[in-house]
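ok so i was messing around last nite and threw this chain in just to see what happens. nothing serious, just curious
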Amino acid sequence: MALTPAQLDAYLARIGMARSISLDIDGLSRLHRAHLMAFTWEALDAFMGWPSSIAPAAAFAKMVQGKRGGWCYEMNGLFGAALAALGFRVTRLCGGVNRAILGDVAIGNHLTLRVDLDRPYLAEVGLADGIIEPIPLAAGPIRQRGFDFSIAPTADGWLRFNNHANGLAHSFDFRPDHSDEAAIEATLGWLTQDAGSPFTNALAILRHIENGYVALKNDCLSTVTAGSISERRITSADHLADIFDTIFGLDIPRPAQVWERIQAVSHEQAS
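result:
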């Protein structure tokens, strides 16, 4: 699943990088950060019931050709396809967000990436508010921009990436050798269509900034750094459309319809 030469050129232009990238941890780190600073993490399609795909080609059309972002399947899918086109050794891994809480039913609800260089690295641009640069694929603590993460083994032989204290997702489990595209495809349907999915009953959008991130959950806009959290409310469809454009850099169709859906969900949850 690699981008074509023309797609790669367009992708690199979108994230502000040149083709002359070293195939080492320095080059991978620069690409990882550039991707996260260029693209917004968003699960709007699931929230609105719009079509969604796990194919990197679909993510390219949406995120590079269109003025949109993506969620884990799209963010990590596009990033992995670009890395493969550049010559990196990439493996798509099947993970489970919040498997610690949900159990094995979570397996497949997350796509993450292993990149083999001098040693295996975890490249992860799809967890929304996770790491900004790749990390060695090994157990231990991680600290980036003042946020504390860790990787720890589970009792049943998986590895668990623990998000920072204010993370939207607490953790995700993965194995360095476990790829299961069928499980990912099967879980996509549940995440995008089932009323019990966290993405169908709440709007989630997030954009990294230099020292943290800005996140929108329904009508609450939060700016989060390692040492602070500030919040403000979205008050109208026009306000929401302006936030989509100026804060998240998104060209969202029918923002008034999205606002109506947010209001409906808020009413349902309050009753």
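not much to say yet. The chain has a mean pLDDT of 95.
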